[in-house]
What does this fold into?
Amino acid sequence: MTTSVAMHMSDGLLNSPTTLLFIGVAVVGVGFAAVRARADLDDRTAPMAGLVAAFVFATQMLNFPVLAGVSGHLLGGALAAILVGPWVGALCVSIVLVVQALVFSDGGLSAIGANITNMALIGTAAGFLVALGLKRFAARGRTGLVAVAFVAALVNTVVASLGFVLEFAIGGDAAFDLGTVAATILGVHVLIGIGEGVITALTVGAVAAVRPDLVYLLRGTQKPLELRGKAAA
It folds into this structure.
């Protein structure tokens, strides 16, 4: 049985007009993120961004089983957004996806626009919006932060998979029933999202235990010092 990796789209899955459309969406989205990221890059964020990109790259190369014939891997959008912010996070995930497509053929070159749109733009935005909405819980302590990271990562994965469904509805093979495709994709990615949530929660919790001041989501709160104090205790 051939094992497939969910989320990364391959060449030929979408027709040419749809492929070009989402290449354009990705270019505009990444360009906008690059402009906005300038305000977030400082002495703390810049080195952290490099570490986040390297970590996401490494973990995306490691697959975990979900169902028979299907495996998943970390998308990284929520993790990156929580640690370095949504704009820098989107750039980190985009760079990872480009390198994987060019060097490791993980995801098709023609599908790079759709993959960036789903994982770097939609996923990162969804994860950060959830984390931002739950920020008051994250600021209460390390347990709250870990729980918020888990939820944000789970939502990030499911919403990113909805991007795939939308793209397939626009330019996918009409021979496949859209309802069946949507149900399969969403069902699989709920399971993948649980794995993503666990990895994200553990990683964010580990960073917060050592350097809570590096967690972008906690900026502007008084809890980072309390988190550090609890870790030291």
Q: What stands out?
A: Residues 178-210 form the longest helix (33 residues).
